């Protein structure tokens, strides 16, 4: 469990994985959907997720530069687990989370 949490245990990584989901998405779209994360932290977390093989990053040689993110097979497996956690939470905590 310690090793698992080291891989996905930050506040943001599970949310980023869930936000990307089963689609290809650009940095700006992730940032807009999350809304409450700084660009610096999002960049750092995406880099770590790429290094861990959970997401893939594709850079296109265009102007302006374009970068797209997708979940790897490893990331899709993890997304399934995060979805199960969401279902568990909805079952046991039906009230919306307080901010």
UniProtKB/TrEMBL annotation:
It holds the Pfam family HxlR. Keywords: DNA-binding, Transcription, Transcription regulation. Residues 1-97 form the HTH hxlR-type domain. The keyword Transmembrane does not apply. The keyword Signal does not apply. InterPro entries: HTH_HxlR, WH-like_DNA-bd_sf, WH_DNA-bd_sf. This is Helix-turn-helix transcriptional regulator. It comes from Chryseobacterium paridis.
